[in-house]
Design brief:
Radius of gyration: 24 Å
Low-confidence stretches: none
Shape: globular
Strand order of the largest sheet: 1-2
CATH topology of the largest domain: Glycosyltransferase
Number of domains: 2
Distance between the termini: 16 Å
Helix content: 55-70%
Order of helices and strands: HEEHHHHHHHHHHHHHHHHHHHHHHEEH
CATH class of the largest domain: Mainly Alpha
Strand content: under 5%
């Protein structure tokens, strides 16, 4: 009993420290985190800005400093094996190493040349050579049929001069069919475009530079692409956000800029805005993150974490009102010019480059339910978000990220973690809907449960789309995915026997996945992290509070996970962030607030479970 009492005291101390840390990140309606600096982003920015500097010498004064600082930062982040990883805590991979090799090759100092030589040797060991064909094969192995990232990487290396100035080198990698972008965008899902829906700017810009350097040998394709150049470049300008950053993403914006420079369009409006975005996005230390911020996402996670302990008022009334107003201001009010998404949804950021998606929309709906569920204005706005999510669901009952039925590539197909999140949001607002929409939501919920039970692996797990683990098999994170689905199915177990059985299998798997020290990694046997332990603790504590699943969760699992969090964070004194986030195309990142958010949510729910 004394040991249990001591754990409770440590739990409370750590929980209070996590709350203080999270509340310190609050600023004007949002909880603002910080994404890790990215060697991949920094390399792409350096390449794009250096190519622009060479093509436009008059801009030397504006471009010299960010290029110089970016090269210095990148040079100092090479791994001991000579390669580069997506974060400074990530193992080397062929994508980031190839881009760093290309970027450092544009520098004219001896140290950069030496580091680039080490990177080249890493590529030779792992890809079989630094020639275009070897790299194309290695990238195809990494990304499969998804050309969203492999073609941009090869294009960057080619523009940086790493393959020489031979048309044959350009023919070693696929030509993106940018002419398809001239068709109405509502046709895209039928055209079989080999990149995901969010990559339209890359399709246009990279397709054009490939066409300029090595036109198709097929006369019809060559003619079609030549005729589509002007229209697709106009479309690129139409869909560019006001601040110049496509998706607020440094890599995507840099790929567009370097491609435009590569076809002699460096003076175009799109290129100028992209340059301004990259300069403004550079950090003081010379690095770039993968994206400007995830402030909408971290804010909704914060509200849910603060409310996980069952508090009727998770934040003071004045601050709650401020958060509600901030979230309402982020809701899309018109059709999105990029993906043609209908009004009513939320993106991950409050900045103009964000795109409405099916993870941030349910996150916002749940946060608004917690903070202002009785507000008539909030109810009206929530109905719009609920309807948007129902309209997005695929025929299989699952929910994709951006666009319904667009394709089978990642981010466009149904995903368990997104479906689970939408399921929770639908249930939270069901009773506030008019009868027609309520019937649609009930049908969507039933279909979502069918999708989730059908996609559960034999061992009881689900694999998420947006989170991974660098040390787990296939770099997947079944712990995160399974925990998110459990949170959704626990609300359905009283109504659906399939949900009850699926949730039970999943809870058993989570309990069995706990390490001897009480922590959790992305999969059994992987090193624990604060984030993953917090996510697992939340799922187990919520299951412990449900009559149907309570017997499956022993008290020791709750106590051990809570004590692991207390020990790892030194009773809340420090929250080390792990690179478990997956951005587009398997690009890893860490977020400063993730360990705080996930640990707090787990500890809040565990505190309530222990009391009961």
């Amino acid at each position: 009993m004394r040991a249990a009492r001591e754990v409770r005291e440590r739990l409370e101390a750590t929980r209070e420290a996590a709350r203080r840390t999270l509340l310190a990140a609050y600023d004007g309606g949002a909880f603002r985190g910080a994404l890790s600096s990215s060697p991949l982003s920094t390399a792409t920015a350096v390449i794009a800005l250096e190519l622009r500097r060479r093509a436009h010498p008059a801009e030397e004064r504006d471009l010299a400093a960010p290029i110089r600082d970016g090269v210095a930062w990148l040079r100092d982040r090479a791994g001991p094996d000579g390669g580069f990883g997506d974060t400074v805590d990530s193992p080397s991979n062929v994508s980031t190493t190839a881009l760093a090799w290309a970027a450092l090759g544009l520098a004219d100092d001896a140290r950069s040349t030496a580091v680039a030589g080490d990177a080249a040797r890493w590529i030779e060991r792992h890809a079989g050579g630094t020639d275009e064909r070897s790299l194309a094969r290695a990238l195809a192995e990494r990304y499969g049929g998804d050309l969203t990232f492999s073609v941009p990487i090869l294009t960057a290396c080619a523009l940086a001069g790493r393959f020489g100035d031979r048309p044959e080198a350009w023919r070693a990698f696929p030509a993106l069919p940018f002419e398809l972008a001239a068709f109405p965008r509502r046709w895209f899902r039928r055209l079989g475009i080999p990149v995901v829906s969010y990559a339209l700017p890359a399709l246009i810009a990279l397709g054009q530079v490939r066409h300029a350097r090595a036109p198709s040998r097929n006369p019809a394709a060559r003619l079609a692409r030549s005729l589509a150049r002007r229209r697709t470049l106009s479309l690129l300008e139409e869909i560019q956000p006001a601040n110049g950053g496509f998706l607020e993403a440094t890599p995507l914006t840099a790929f567009v800029l370097m491609s435009l420079v590569g076809i002699g369009r460096g003076g175009a409006v799109v290129a100028r805005r992209a340059t301004e975005f990259l300069i403004a996005s550079a950090r003081d230390d010379g690095s770039w993150p993968i994206d400007t911020n995830l402030d909408t996402w971290t804010t909704t996670l914060a509200v849910k974490a603060l409310a996980a302990g069952g508090a009727a008022r998770p934040v003071e009334d004045a601050r709650a009102a401020e958060i509600v107003r901030w979230l309402l201001d982020q809701q899309g009010a018109a059709e999105h010019p990029y993906t043609l998404a209908a009004p009513g949804a939320w993106a991950w950021t409050d900045l103009p480059g964000g795109v409405p998606d099916a993870d941030d929309t349910p996150g916002a709906l749940l946060a608004l339910r917690i903070l202002a569920g009785d507000s008539s204005e909030v109810r009206v706005r929530a109905v719009e978000g609920v309807r948007w999510l129902v309209d997005l669901a695929n025929r299989d009952g699952g929910v994709p990220t951006f666009c319904r039925g667009f394709g089978k590539l990642p981010f466009d197909r149904s995903s368990p973690d997104l479906t689970a999140h939408a399921l929770r949001a639908w249930r939270a607002w069901r009773d506030d809907l008019d009868p027609p929409l309520r019937r649609r939501v009930d049908a969507a919920r039933a279909a979502a449960v069918r999708y989730l039970t059908a996609t559960q692996a034999e061992d009881g797990t689900w694999t998420p789309l947006w989170f991974g683990n660098q040390g787990a098999p296939r770099e997947e994170n079944p712990l995160y995915g399974t925990a998110q689905v459990v949170l959704a199915l626990l609300d359905e177990v009283g109504d659906d026997a399939r949900a009850r059985e699926a949730a039970a299998r999943a809870v058993r798997w989570i309990v069995a996945a706990q390490a001897d020290d009480g922590g959790f990694g992305g999969a059994p046997g992987t090193p624990p992290s604060v984030e993953e332990t917090g996510v697992a603790l939340l799922a187990l504590a919520e299951a412990r509070r449900r009559e149907e699943t309570a017997p499956l969760v022993p008290d020791r699992a709750i106590f051990a996970a809570a004590e692991h969090l207390a020990s790892t964070t030194r009773d809340g004194a420090a929250f080390p962030a792990a690179p478990i986030g997956l951005y587009f195309a398997r690009l890893w990142y860490a977020e400063r607030l993730y360990p705080v958010l996930f640990a707090l949510a787990g500890l809040e729910s565990a505190s309530l479970a222990i009391e009961r």
